[in-house]
Design brief:
Length: 135
């Protein structure tokens, strides 16, 4: 009994199935990544010559950032949305009052910010900067 098996057709069919499975896996991974919330893991601030550089360390997918300078009463003094850049330089020559930096982060496509972090207070009256953080 001689059965004829078309190995080439079977191989092409198997290859198509494998390709479909890979596409489904990529879609599921992509969906999972975009559903995760963005998280700030730290802020680095450099205060030199009346310029404040703020850099955000974060875990996210296509994160968008909002940088704000706040006074001690949490009133917004300066506000800058930088899009996908994780750092911003503030020119603070005009600010003589104590202030702090608040950074908000969200993933692309999210309506609200997922995580917020605040820095220490700068220009404190006693000449030293207070440590303060919010999670």
């Amino acid at each position: 009994m001689a059965d004829y098996i078309d190995w080439k057709a079977r191989y092409i069919e198997l290859e198509d199935q494998l390709l479909q499975m890979m596409e489904m896996t990529i879609h599921l991974i992509d969906k999972e990544v975009h559903q995760q919330k963005a998280k700030i893991s730290g802020l680095e601030t450099t205060y030199v010559d009346r310029e404040l550089t703020v850099t955000v360390k974060s875990k996210s997918a296509n994160a968008q950032y909002l940088f704000e300078l706040l006074n001690t009463d949490n009133d917004v003094l300066l506000k800058q949305e930088t899009g996908y850049r994780n750092n911003h330089i503030f020119n603070i020559e005009q600010l003589d009052e104590p202030f702090k930096v608040r950074v908000s982060i969200r993933n692309e496509g999210h309506d609200s910010y997922d995580d917020v972090n605040e820095s220490k207070i700068f220009n404190a009256e006693d000449g030293q900067n207070e440590e303060k953080s919010a999670d």
